[in-house]
Amino acid sequence: MKQLSGVDASFLYMETGTSFGHVSGLSIFERPDIAGWSPYEAFRRQVESRLPILEPLRRRVVEVPLQLDHPYWIEDPDFDLDYHLRESAVPPAGGEHQLAELVARIVGRPLDRSHPLWESYVIEGLTGDRFAVLTKLHHSTIDGAAGAELTTILFDADPDATVPAVPDDRRPEPVPGPAEVLGRALVDVVRKPRKLIRLQIRSLRAFGELTRNQGLTGLAEVARSLPSPWPARRGGSRSNEQDAPSAPPRTPAPSTPFNRSITAHRRLALRSMSLSEVKAVKNALGATLNDVVMAMCAGALRRYLADHDALPENPLVAMVPVSIRTGEEADKWSNRVSSIFTPIPTDEADPLERVRRVHEAMDVAKGRFNLLPADMLTDYAQFSPPALAARAARVATRLRIADRLNSPVNLVISNVPGPRDPLYLAGARLLHYYPVSTIVDGQGLNITVQSYRDTLDFGLVACRELVPDVDDLADHIVDELHTLARAAGLTTAEARPKRRAASAARSAKSTNPAKAKRPAKSAKSAKTSQSVKVAKAPNRPKTPKTRAGAKTAAARR
Fold first, then answer.
1. What's the CA gap between 452 and 33, in Å, rounded?
2. SS3 content of the chain, % helix, strand, coil (to 5)
3. Which of the 8 DSSP states describes residue 428?
4. How far apart are CA 341 and CA 126, in angstroms?
5. If you ran DSSP here, which 8-state letter would residue 219 be given?
6. Is CATH 3.30.559 the right assignment for the domain spanning 266-377+400-411+435-556?
7. Is the pLDDT of residue 223 over 50?
8. Is the CB of residue 481 less than 8 Å from the CB of residue 490?
9. Catalytic: 139?
10. Which residues contact 39 (CB under 8 A, 6 or more apart)?
11. How many Å apart are CA 407 and CA 341, to the nearest integer?
12. Is-contact 441 262, C-beta < 8 A?
């Protein structure tokens, strides 16, 4: 029996009738040339053989009475693998559009909390002798980095790999009664004041060191030296409650059509592009891979909003998840993630200038993020009242607060590093791994990208009513890669799925905002506009490559 941390539990509290806390991964496989081979049976054997080492698939949540404290995980005593595994199929013609429609309907349903919080669907009927596996897993149990590791555990690096013998030391626990759970929770509630004081002292010391204020640092040292009214904690005093995101911007983000109350219905768009081509662009521009991805998203959003006569004058604001894993976590199956908040230059017509501004904004955001220890920033979520957090989410949905107030953030853009080596499912080769994330009230659009081998796979999730034409936005992202490559003097293989007729006709009639006249720059802006190097681009001088300053998973790539 193990208690959820504050961030883990927050993904449970956020759930309403329209917002769901699960994230999903869509794996596309090439069927092996084996007579009588069944995707469902092969996947079932694979999951069953690895259950002993996949704790997130076996544990279920137990709520604390009256929501006095965060819930607990227990080993499910009634685990039923066949409940979690389902078979499905796409209708003709079995293309990506039919697959996206099916997946959008599946992810628009909540998970049952009386079971372990996951489901997997083996989906057949795809063209080209392919099949798919969709796995829904609640965000309260893993983050993006842990999800990528789960993928490497679940699948094989060798197409001829045999099922390994894994020791099964599982010990199912009986579901505890309300009195037992309440007793455990009360013990933790009594300890919380001491933990909060300890965290406040750490904060005081960190702020003193940050501002070089010896008075604050000395005050923190004096506070630490005072005798505690609580008995010493056995087994060390280090807190393992590392949870929550950093504070969002104080000013609201500009309003867009997708920053409103959402429904339970989803749209999904899937796109892929060559990782090598994106790297060629980032090398030519002296930027990071994440800079290029963010600039592509900014350019695509600019075009999409201009097509709908909804492009704000001010830049949109994106929340970018950041992994704070050290590799030394006692529990790898939890959320070790924070966030940075950054403007993205949707107000900029020049594609190269967008890259420069993204690079500059990300440097500033990462610098602010690194000012204080990440674990200290995240510890504060442990003290949020569970009942109040869950009730606030429900009240905000019922009152449609997202329709009355601008959100501080327009959307989430996430870039998750994935496996570089090929993976297999009982001989079936993994072709693509599309991330399928979640949306919430006020943020009806999510763009997540994950790398796999030499491919970047994009998953765009949106509210069906707010962004019915999310495929157009996905097409614009692919187009932006070619736009950046041409601006940098490079060439790319401009091959991508054809747009639907309606989408193509609408796009042909729309005005390309990238051709709009660029606004006049101030002297300061003109002076710094060359901080990102542009290789092979005419009429632009070369400058040394810039360096990213933050140690984030996105920056390291």
1. 23
2. 40, 20, 40
3. E
4. 38
5. H
6. yes
7. no
8. no
9. yes
10. 29, 31, 122, 124, 131, 133, 425, 428
11. 13
12. yes
Distance CA 298, CA 342 (A): 12
Instruction: Kindly report the number of other CB atoms within 10 A of residue 373's CB atom.
Output: 14
pLDDT tier at 382 (50, 70, 90 boundaries)?
A: low
Written as one string, the DSSP assignment of 488-516 is: TT-------PPPPHHHHHHHHHS--GGGS
Cα angle 452, 143, 550; round to 5: 80
pLDDT digits (tens, 9 = 90+) for 42-83: 999 999 999 998 999 999 999 988 777 889 999 999 999 999
Q: Which residue carries 């449970």 as its tokens?
A: 12
Contacts of 424 (CB under 8 A, 6+ apart): 155, 156, 157, 158, 159, 161, 430
Q: Which of 110-114, 286-290, 335-339, 436-440 has the lowest mean pLDDT?
A: 335-339
Tell me the three state secondary structure of residue 336. Answer: coil
Three-state SS across 140-207?
A: CCCCHHHHHHHHHHHCECCCCCCCCCCCCCCCCCCCCCHHHHHHHHHHHHHHHHHHHHHHHHHHHHHH
What pLDDT does residue 385 have?
Answer: 58
The predicted structure's pLDDT at residue 6: 79
Query: How do the domains of the chain map onto residue ranges?
Result: 266-377+400-411+435-556
> Quick check: pTM over 0.85?
no
DSSP state of 335: -
- Give the ranges where 344-385 is alpha helix by DSSP (H): 351-369, 374-379
Own/partner long-range contacts of 34-38 (Cβ < 8 Å, ≥24 apart): 34/427, 37/426, 37/427, 37/428
Phi, psi (degrees; rounded to nearest 5) at 40 = -65, -50
Give the strand pairing for 316-323 and 411-416.
Answer: parallel
Q: Which of 85, 123, 117 is nearest to 104 (CA)?
A: 123
Name the DSSP class of 226: S
Q: 70, 84, 139, 432: which one is catalytic?
A: 139
Give the distance, in angstroms, between the CA of residue 8 and the centroid of all CA atoms in the same chain: 14
The residue among 408, 338, 412 whose CA lies nearest residue 372 is 338
